[in-house]
Amino acid sequence: MKSVNPKYANYALCREMLETVEVIRNFKTADLSKPVQSMKKTRKLFLTGEGSSRIFPAKHTINIIQKNNFPLTVYTEGSRQAAELKLNDFTVFGASNSGKTNELISLFKNRPSAGKFALTAFRETPLGDLSEDTFVLSCGKEKAVAATKSVIEQALFYHHLIKAYIGADCDKSLSDLADKAKEVLEMEIEPAMVDIIANSDMIYFAGRNNGVSEEATLKTNEITRKKSAYLEGTYAVHGIEEVMTDREVVLLIDPYKEEEEKFKEVLVDGVGMPVIAIASRDTLFPTIRIPSLCCYDAYLQLLACWNILVEVGMAAGVDLDHPTRARKVGNEFKG
Question: What would the CATH number be for the domain defined by 187-315?
Fold first, then answer.
């Protein structure tokens, strides 16, 4: 997916994906002292929002905290479910590009918490009016329906928020991440792999519960107009194989080496379906090899999924920018 190729440059979706490289390279945050002070007081963080503004940014953040055993309790749920919880002792962050997401505004209006903060793409929004402080993304407005560069910047924001909380610096890695992001977005996907995915009746994503596979599942619907499902952990080999067919495909993201043989036995040998891996190493399956960068692999895996889905969407002949039913703001606040 190269910007100099009109095949891609004609689509806002592709342009925005490619703009992610410079969003990463130039990423900065405003003063984080208010939310960090609140987090140090509560030692509890709740990340909420809807759709792409929550899935990868929030789940990736939780994964970072759990893997490093940082002294912070973090949860995420959609805004309606969050409204059923007691958040009085939590610092709450709500992410909404428009700042007009109805469910999130309702939560901020009606549920007390120890601190409310907004992450938006615009200033002076209804969500910002309900927050102690608003942090505005620098990536600019997205024209395509599918959120892309904003998702990465939201995740980077939370990543830096956590680093600020523990007193660490992660800016020095951003240049390397930007270079590798460009490599992943511009890498050529083997046409044979694209054909397999484009001709499938169903695309499954299997992998860790860190937001990558789940976000790629959503992007599949918006970009390729194909049905998709996220199979967490070993779900793909724990019963669903009963109804899988050889007309479907599994994209296995960064598989555990210890589980590859079982996936091959159940899905490839048993069902007869293709399995394609996305990883920084060779696997038992046809593999889309991507670079690795300590602490940032999930970003590169998601970008690889974008690249694949663009090629699949183009192979399927769909208009990448204009889904028939999907909307930029799922449920907009009208007050």
Answer: 3.40.50.10490
